[in-house]
Design a protein that fits this description.
Blueprint lengths: L1 E4 L5 E5 L2 E5 L15 E3 L10 H5 L5 E4 L10 E3 L4 E4 L2 E9 L11 E7 L3 E3 L13 E5 L7 H11 L3 E5 L6 H14 L3 E2 L9
Parallel strand pairs: 3-4, 4-5, 5-6, 10-11, 11-12, 12-13
Antiparallel strand pairs: 1-2, 2-3, 7-8, 8-9, 9-10
Helix pairs in contact: 2-3
């Protein structure tokens, strides 16, 4: 499986000519969606979904059934749901966005485990029950601190981890966060710049 990181939380997965894109928000590059067969959206915030771009795409868009996403037809899923999107096996996990403060924002947020190997949690730190080979770990957000990201990686114990949710950090801050995650976890941690694949 080829994984390509785009700006912020957007990730493109490719395998055998099939393309699945996760969280193509308003901050991510439109090229992330080129040739997409299906899209997964973790939650309704604009940094994770660009409604106008997706409305004209004409491919299935899977999102939490409880998400408030006007002007876009979605296939609603719930935590525990298993389905196939673009030929990839997907399991939805979690359920709610992490709190920022005073219980806000509280919206539906699903993480997605792809082909029992890759996990994109959206804006949550939900630890799934099954082993995870590749973790897409949120590196920064108004709803988290670096210690929580480190604890999240340690709790999941993936073979490798790559940061997502990092567009609000300048280069100096991003270097610091990546340094802490690389030094403090026992997996193969590597930063992928927008557009970089592995």
């Amino acid at each position: 499986m080829r994984i390509t990181k785009y700006t912020h939380a957007c990730v493109r997965l490719e395998h055998d000519g099939r393309v699945l894109v996760i969280d193509p928000g308003t901050w991510s590059e439109p090229t992330a969606l080129r040739g997409a067969d299906a899209v997964l959206v973790t939650h309704e915030h604009a940094d994770h979904i660009d409604v106008l771009r997706l409305a004209g795409l004409g491919v299935p868009v899977y999102a939490p059934a409880d998400a408030d996403i006007p002007r876009l037809e979605i296939i609603g899923v719930s935590s525990g749901t298993e389905f196939t999107a673009a030929g990839f096996r997907v399991r939805a996990v979690g359920g709610r966005h992490a709190f920022v403060h005073d219980g806000r924002p509280d919206c539906a947020n699903l993480g997605y485990v792809i082909d029992e190997a890759v996990y994109h949690p959206g804006d949550s730190l939900h630890v799934p029950e099954q082993p995870i080979e590749t973790l897409l770990v949120p590196a920064q957000g108004s709803w988290m601190k670096t210690a929580e990201a480190i604890s999240f990686v340690k709790a999941i114990e993936p073979r490798r981890a790559f940061p997502i949710h990092d567009a609000q950090i300048n280069d100096r801050g991003l270097s610091s966060v990546n340094g802490w995650l690389a030094e403090s976890t026992d997996c193969d941690y590597r930063f992928l710049a927008p557009g970089e694949s592995l």
